[in-house]
Write a structure and sequence with these properties.
mainly beta; 9 strands; 3-stranded antiparallel sheet; Jelly Rolls; single chain
């Protein structure tokens, strides 16, 4: 089984009130299963605030909208981590887009 990982971390951020962090995640293929994690980062430590196992829907592009609550606070960054497992030696293209942070808690949770 092949494994690949990717990270995307924001610049330092001050979240002044509990907020909803949302982004789009897409993968091309159905040969792998992806685990997407969102974590806050402070002083070399990460706190996971959400984790999802995503199975592609078909043999083309599968897209997901991820929602997770972020507590108020000063963070060195917010991390999006993608870990993929594949039964074949094939690195499927992945994309993260439309990253947003809205005041108030998410009305929709998860994906």
């Amino acid at each position: 089984m092949e494994e690949s990982m990717g990270y995307l971390r924001s610049a330092p951020v001050n979240v002044v009130e509990n907020s909803c962090f949302t982004f789009h995640f897409a993968i091309v293929s159905s040969y792998s299963m992806s685990v997407v994690r969102v974590a806050t980062f402070n002083s070399n430590s990460y706190h996971t605030v959400g984790q999802w196992e995503l199975q592609p829907f078909n043999y083309y592009i599968s897209a997901f909208v991820i929602y997770v609550n972020i507590s108020s606070g000063q963070y060195d960054g917010i991390l999006i981590e993608v870990q993929s497992y594949s039964m074949i030696n094939y690195n499927e293209p992945k994309a993260v887009d439309n990253i947003q942070l809205f005041p108030g808690e998410c009305t929709t949770g998860g994906m």
